[in-house]
Amino acid sequence: MGNTIQLNYSILGPERQKAIEKGLVSGEWYQCSVPRKRMKELMIRKNGPAIRDTLLWIALTVVLGYVAYLSWGSWWAVPVFIVYGTVYTVPAVSKWHESSHGTMFRTAWMNEALYQFTSFLILIQATNFRWTHARHHTDTIIVGSDPEIMEPRPPKLQRVLRYIIRESFIYNTWPYLFKHAIGLLSAEEKELVPTSEQRKLFLEARVFIIIYAVIISLCFYLDSILPLMFVGLPAFYGALLNGLLVSTQHVGLYEDTLDHRLCARTFYTNRILRFLYTNMNYHIEHHMFPLVPYYNLPALHEEIKHDCPVAASSFTAAVRETWGAIWKMRKDHSYIVPRCREFAEHRKVIDRNLSSVSQSG
């Protein structure tokens, strides 16, 4: 049985200083070799693909919303609204994430407009996430420094399931919004969000509260929860698929390493899921080269796959691997999925051989 010591994952805890002393905070990450000219091509941002995909998502959501409206009052509303909520939530979250990087569109204001719009849809403030996610990319799965580690080791199944269905967000969203609206921040937020950005965070919270107050008032006026079923609540009742997708990104892989190949997971999937997920299944590629737009990630994958672990064969395979790891990590704190561990050992052999050749030369 492996180590079962529970570490302190807080970014304000003792593990932060240990990570600094180990050189893991703001460290120099491994990058696969890509020809400079090719990388410049892959980093080109275009408005066309992002506009096309965004409009298609909005159109699909409107159509499904109309079908859901027609089903209201019958048992058909249950499956139809689940489909509507899923199509609302998964692309909203993935496009929110991508636009936070400023890489979806060539035109800067388009990125910001979509970022603020999707933040409103999923009830997570743009300014807050921009800075927590910047830290996540700087110190990916570094214990004590990354605020976005989904599940500490050893995991607790109840906590994981609550995260997957966003149950904990239901209780935390509004208290946080009201605190931000009156100018209060948590200790971690003070650590992550620069003072110059905090007024923007407070303004966003006030705008959220005002608009959702209007929607809630409309519910009372109509004597129906239906308006919230279309805006706001889908981010919760439609969260299951998104939660499963997010769980595949890093769980069961290495912590405290400066190699994205060992702490992020890429998997293959069909075009429909790639469209909904905005190509975030190419997660090693996204973390290693975060300035590459989502529509170029498949091409980037082809450039570097020879130097990465073999991608999980499907979304189902990635979920099985992730949840198998969660089950094993409950007792074995140090468990790493075999596919990743084997790659790490293989790289050690190659690096030792290269070092020997270099020294003999």
Automatic annotation (TrEMBL):
It comes from Paenibacillus allorhizoplanae. This is Fatty acid desaturase domain-containing protein. Keywords: Membrane, Transmembrane, Transmembrane helix. The chain crosses the membrane at residues 50-69, 75-94, 207-230. It comes from the Bacteria. InterPro entries: FA_desaturase_dom, Fatty_acid_desaturase. Residues 74-310 form the Fatty acid desaturase domain. PANTHER family: DELTA(5) FATTY ACID DESATURASE C-RELATED, FATTY ACID DESATURASE 2. It holds the Pfam family FA_desaturase.
